[in-house]
Amino acid sequence: MALDTEGDSLHHYPERLSLVQLAVPAGEVWLVDPLALDDLSALAPVFAGPGITTVLHAGDNDLVQLKRRHGFRFESLFDTYVAARFLGEPALGLDVLLERYLGVQLPPSRQRDDWSARPLSGAQLHYAASDVYHLVALKNRLSDELRSVGRLAWVEEECTALAAQPVPERAVDPNAFAALRGARDLSLRGLAVLRELHDLREQLARAADRPPFKILQAETLVRLAQAVPADRDALGRVPGCTARVIARWGDAILDAVARGKALPEEEFPRLDRRPRPRVAAIVQRRIEALRRWRTEAAPRFGLEPGLLLPNRLIGVIAGASPGDPGELASVDGVRRWRAHTFGAELLAALALA
User: Fold this and answer.
1) What does the mean pLDDT of the chain come to?
2) Cis before residue 275, ω within 30 degrees of 0?
């Protein structure tokens, strides 16, 4: 069963799942409207049924939406994006892969459309159906290619992990403002102003049903916290505060700045500035040895370095220091295909550290 979804994150806030597209190998396509249905649980057996493989392309976001919001479980997955990466394809867009492997041209992209608007146009319906119509055939072609180079089991293992990966509820981070670029260069009072502005933007975005970046860009928030404008004239001199922004939200912005400026010092944001954990010298040597191996091996196997051995795994393997293939395979995230194919080389690299 081929699967794709469309959301409205460029136009509304919070984002809504706006369309679910399904297709079967025989060529039948269904478009399901989540905005017209209170309950999508009837689709649960479509994805969780025994013997059913759900085929997606770059399906991370689709899976997050369907697992988190609807509690769906997937019996088996095949992601054509993942498959193409393991074939060393330089371009991974669905349009490129369909043309390369099936000689099919997709209609022009409509990814920036507001998919929550109704009715959908004929062009939108055609685009939505085209995104899933050829996916099963593409899976079959990619599977043949992977089988011929001995990598089909690699992709199947990665997709099994993707299917099983839990998606916890998104936690509200009270210090999300501190993650904005330039935030940690501000004074504590500047951080207090930024926190007020960040909270204001969230409130305005929800009230206006618009994505936060369409209210105020992140860099504009930081500039406002640096400039701490006291009136509309000063506000107008802050890049990003256009006449339209000031007309709609100028008073609210100035009030937020004033609240941050008026906070007593004991109520300033206190950010945990943890020092980077110290890495033991032997572990650092192992990390460097694994990176050297990856640099040499990636072109030899025709794989992206980050796919062959992600940075996260390099640190985990270096810390675990496995002594044999069995111990290597048991390291979280290594996967059987890495341990079986590259295990001897990885252990040899570690031994040189």
Assistant:
1) 95
2) no
Q: Kindly report, residue by residue over 227-259, the tens digit of the pLDDT.
A: 999 999 999 999 999 999 999 999 999 999 999
Per DSSP, helices labelled H in 3-119 are 44-48, 60-70, 80-86, 94-102
State the pLDDT at residue 39: 93
Contacts of 4 (CB under 8 A, 6+ apart): 20, 21, 56, 57, 59, 62, 128, 131, 132, 135
Whole-number Å distance between alpha carbons of 251 and 230: 10
- φ/ψ of 247, rounded to 5, equals -65, -40
Average pLDDT score over residue span 144-170:
95
- Which range, 85-94, 167-176, 266-275, is most confident? 85-94
Q: Which helix (H) or strand (E) holds 266?
A: none
The whole-number pLDDT of residue 275 equals 72
User: Which of left, alpha, beta for 249 (phi over 0: left; psi -120 to 50: alpha)?
Assistant: alpha
Average pLDDT over residues 259-266: 95
Q: Please report the domains of the chain, with CATH numbers, ordered by start residue.
A: 2-164 (3.30.420.10), 176-267 (1.10.150.80), 281-351 (1.10.150.80)
| Contact indicator for 3, 59 with CB cutoff of 8 Å | yes
Spatial contact of 195 and 155, defined as CB atoms under 8 Å apart: no
Whose CA is closest to 343, among 304, 300, 293, 302?
293
Q: Sorting pLDDT into bands at 50, 70 and 90, what band is 171? A: confident
Distance CA 29, CA 111 (A): 19
Question: Encoding tokens for residue 172?
Answer: 């509200």
- Number of Cβ atoms within 10 Å of the Cβ of 223: 18
Strand order across the beta sheet in which 29-32 lies: 29-32, 17-23, 2-7, 54-56, 77-79
Report how far Cα 182 is from the mean position of its chain's Cα atoms.
23
